[in-house]
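Escalated from tier 1: flavin-adenine dinucleotide holo job.
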Amino acid sequence: MTDETPVVDVFRAELPDAVLTPGDDGYDDATSPHNSSFAQTPGVVVRPRTADDVARAVQLAAQYERPVLVQGSGHGAAEPVHDTVVLIDTSQLNTVAIDTAAHTATVGAGVPWSAVNAAAEPHGLLGPSGTSPTVAVAGYTFGGGVGWFVRKHGMAAAMLRSVEYVDATGRLRRASEDASEPVDREALWAFRGGAPVGVATSLEIGLIRVPELWTGYLLWPADALSAVAAAWSEATADIAEDVTSDLALLQLPPEGPFPEHLRGTAVVHLSYASPEGPAHLQRLRAAVVGAAEPAVDTTGPGDASALAAIHLDPPVAVPARGIGRWLNRPSAETIVEMFTAARVGTPGGMNMIELRHTDSRASFPDGMQTRMPAPFLLHAVAAAPDDDGRRRADTALGKVLAAARDADTGRSAPSFCEGTLGADRAFSADDMARVRAVKDSLDPARLFRFQRDPVRTANTL
Ligand SMILES: Cc1cc2nc3c(=O)[nH]c(=O)nc-3n(C[C@H](O)[C@H](O)[C@H](O)COP(=O)(O)OP(=O)(O)OC[C@H]3O[C@@H](n4cnc5c(N)ncnc54)[C@H](O)[C@@H]3O)c2cc1C
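Tier 2 regenerated the structure:
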C-alpha cells in the first residue's frame, strides 16, 4: 500500500469503469499524448462517459486536493504529469450532433475535428477546423482556432455558441450569452479563444456552408524559396477572402507519396483551400506556378479528408517544441530570412516553419480571442525530446523570431507554442484582469491545470 492507494480506491468505488491506474488496460494509451515531449504518470486517470462522471471526478479531486489536468488528443501536452495529478481523459465524451437548420454542431469535449467534419460534410457543411484531423474541437477552440476558412469566417472561437462545463466545486454549468448567472456569460467570453475556466463536457459551435471545396498543395525544392515567397507575398496582398493559404518550408519524410528526389529533403510547401470553388485560387496559382514550376501539384475539388491531409502534419506522436507569433505583412525578403533562420532539416534546426495568411474582416462576437490579431501567423516547430533538445530548439526559435523583427507585432499565439506551458505575451492587461476574475469565481484555488493557460503563465502584452 502507498499513500496513493486510499485515494485511488475512492475514485474506483465512486467511478467504477471510468478509472485507470498504472498497469490497467488503457492507461498507457491515456498517458501517451500526441505531443510526446513529457512523461505522464498520473496516479489516477478518469475516462468519463458522462458529464456527471466529470463532475464526480472533480468533486473527489477537490476533496483530496489533487490537481486536475484535462486531455483530449494531447496535442497541447506541455509539462510533465506527476503521480499526484488526476488526469481527465475526455476521449469517451465523443458524441456529435449536427443541426442542419441552425448550422451548428454539438460535440462531446473529446471529439476530434475529423468526426465533426465526417458528420457535417453530407449536409454541405464543415467545421472551422485546422490542419490536423486529430486535434480536438475543445482545446483548439479554447485557444482561438485558426482553420482553413479563417479568412472568410474568422477564428473558431468566434463561432463558439455555448459550453457545458464543470467548475472546481464539481457543479455542472452552461456558459452562454444568455446564461442567467453573469459568471457563465463571462465564462463563455473566456472559453472563446482565451482560457478554459472549467472542464468542458460539451460544446456547441457554428459550422460553415461549403458549396464547392477546392484544396491542395504544391511542392518545390528548397532552392525555389525566394521565387515562390516573392510571388505568394505579392498575391496575398489582394487575394479574395475565400482563399486561405499557408507557405511553409518543411522536411519531408523519407517515405511517402512524393517524388523520390524530394523524399527526406527540405521543400517549399504551399497549401490552400477555398470553400467557394477554384475561381479565386487561380490568381494565386498563376502567380506561384509562374514563379517556379512545382514538382507536385495536388490542387482540385476536395473533401474533408483531402483538406485534413494537405498540410502534411505528422500522423504520429512527436515531441514538438514550437513558437507561434502574429505578424504584420512581412516583405518577401523577411519571409526568406525567417525561413532560412529556421535551418529546416539540418541538425538542431526546425522540422517546419510556416506562415499562414490570416487577414480577415469577418465579424466577431465578444470573446477573449475572437478577433484576428494580425494578418499573418508565423509558426515554427522542432522535434525536442529532452531538456537539451528543448534548449537547442529554443535557441533556434529565438533566431527565427529575430529574423521576423520587421513584421513582429510582439504578440504570441499560445496554441502554436508546442511543448511550452505558455507564451510570453498574448493578451492585454485588461483581458488578463477579466479572465482572472472569472477564474477567481469558478476555480479560486486553481484546481485545474490547463496547458498554456494565460493565467498560469501571466502572459500579458
Ligand atoms: C499537428 C498539429 C496541428 C495543429 N493545427 C492547428 C491549426 O491548424 N490551427 C490551430 O488553431 N491550432 C492548431 N494546432 C494547435 C492546437 O489547436 C492546440 O495544440 C490545442 O491545444 C489542441 O487541443 P486538443 O484538445 O486537441 O489537445 P489537448 O492536449 O487534449 O488539450 C490541450 C489543452 O486544451 C484545453 N482543453 C482540452 N480539452 C478541454 C476540456 N474538455 N475542458 C477544458 N479545457 C480543455 C486544456 O487547456 C488542455 O490542456 C495544431 C497542433 C498540432 C500538434
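The chain has 14 helices and 20 strands.
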